[in-house]
Write a structure and sequence with these properties.
Blueprint: H1 6-25, H2 32-39, E1 46-55, E2 61-68, E3 83-85, E4 88-90, E5 93-99, E6 105-110, E7 120-128, E8 131-139, E9 142-151, E10 156-166, E11 174-179, E12 184-190, E13 221-225, E14 228-229, E15 246-247, E16 254-255, E17 262-265, E18 276-281, E19 286-292, E20 311-317, E21 332-338, E22 343-348, E23 355-362, E24 368-375, E25 386-394, E26 397-403, E27 419-420, E28 433-436, E29 439-442
Parallel strand pairs: 14-27, 15-29
Antiparallel strand pairs: 1-2, 2-5, 3-4, 5-6, 7-8, 8-9, 9-10, 10-11, 11-12, 12-13, 16-18, 17-26, 18-19, 19-24, 20-21, 20-25, 21-22, 23-24, 25-26, 28-29
Amino acid sequence: MTMTPVRMRVCAAALISSAAFCAAVCAADLDPARKSAICQTRAACTIGKVYDGGRSASAAPLIVVEVHLGLTDKPDDAPDEGCHAEGKFDGGVEYWLLEGAQPPKRLLKFCNDGYGAAGVGEDDVTVESGKLIHRRVGGSAWRWESATTYTLSPWRAIAERDCSFNDLSSDNGSVTDIDFLAMTARSITKDRAAKWGEDVGCPQWPANASAAFTPHPAPNLLGAYNVLVPAMGADPASTRIPSGTAIGDCVPPMTTAGANGFVVFGDPAPAARAAEVRAIAESFQTLVVQVFDPAASPQTAAGGSWINLPHVEIWIGLNTESSRTRLPFNQLAQFGVDLNGKVYPGVGRKEALPRVERWPARDAAGHPVVVMRLSWPNDTEFVNGVAVVYSQAEAGKQKRMAATTAIVRNRPLFVPDLMSLPNIDAAPPPGKCQIRAGLLSKVQ
C-alpha cells in the first residue's frame, strides 16, 4: 500500500476543493448589512472566500463566508506576535454561515499558532453541499491530522477522522474514524510484522472499510473497534453512571451474530440467540459492561472451568511504547468476568484484579440485562487501549466468541485506544450521552 505524508495529502485536497468552489462562488458580493453584521466593530476585518453550501432542508440557500482578521482583532489567547498566516501574522480566521434571511452565524474561529515546537501546523476548510470539513495538521516528530465533518443546517459535528504517526519510523501510524451519530469509533493501524520500507505516514482508510469493517481491512493493516468514553457533562463526577442504570443507545451493541465486532470463535449466532454486549469507559481505570444473553440460562461449566461459562474477557495494553500493535505478551493483561460478577485472572502480565459492582437492569427493549462496573486501581491505566470479548456458552461449553478485535491463539492482534469524545458546548452536542428514564442514551 502506498503511503502519503499527511501534510502533503491535506494540502493537495485543499487546493483541489478550494479551486472548485472558488470558481463557482468566490465572486459573489455580500450586501453591506451582512458584512457589517459579520465584522461588527472590527476595523481590520475583511471578507475572503465565499462558498456555496447548497440548501437547507427548508430550501433556504446556505452560504459560508471566510473572514480574515487583523492583528488588532487577534484572540486573547493567541501568541503575542499574532496568528501564523503564510509567512506573516494576523488575527486569525473565522467562518460564518448565511442561511436564507437569518442573521449571520459564526461557525468556527481559529488561530494557527504553529501546533508544536517544529512549527508544523495548518488549518484548512472545504465546503460541500450541506457540509463543512475542517482539517488540521500539526506536531513535530509525532505528527497528527484531524478532519471533522459538520452539517451546516443544523450546525453539528457528525464525524471525525484522526491520524497520528511518528515521522522517524515507517512501521507505525493509525487512523480512527468516529461517527458521532452512530456513536461508534473504528481504528486501523499498520501491522508492525509487515515490511513498510520508506512509507512513513498514516495508512489510507480503505474504501471498503466503511461499509464492511474487518480485522484485516487491507493488506498489512489491522482493524478494531474502540471503546468510547462518551461525554456526559462538564462535571467530572457526571461521567460515573449511577448503579441501576442500563446502557441504552449511547453506544450500539456488539453481538455474537457479528454486529459491531468480529466473531472470532465458532459460528455467528442465529438472531434469536445472539447476545448483545455494550461497553463504555468512565475513565482510564473504569469500564462499564452490559450483557443481554438469551442463551445464558443457569448452566454448569464443563470441567468446572470458567472458560465454559458465559463471560466477558477484557484485554488491556499496559506498556508505554508508542505502538499499539504486536505488543509484547508480557505487556498485555487479560481478565475474565462471569455474569455473576466473579473475576478470573487470565494470561499475560499479572495485574491487580478489578473490583466489580454488579446490578440487574432492563434495556430499552425490556430485556433483562446484567450491568457490571469494573474498576482497576489508579496505577493500572489502560495506557495502550482496551479490547472486549464476549464468550457465549451453550450446554455448559464455550459456543462462540465475539470481540472488538481479532483474537489469534488467545491473543489480540490489535488493542485500540480508548476514544474520549469531546465535551463540546453545542446544540446538539456531538458524542454526548445522558440518563433518561434509567437508560444512558445519546443526546441528538
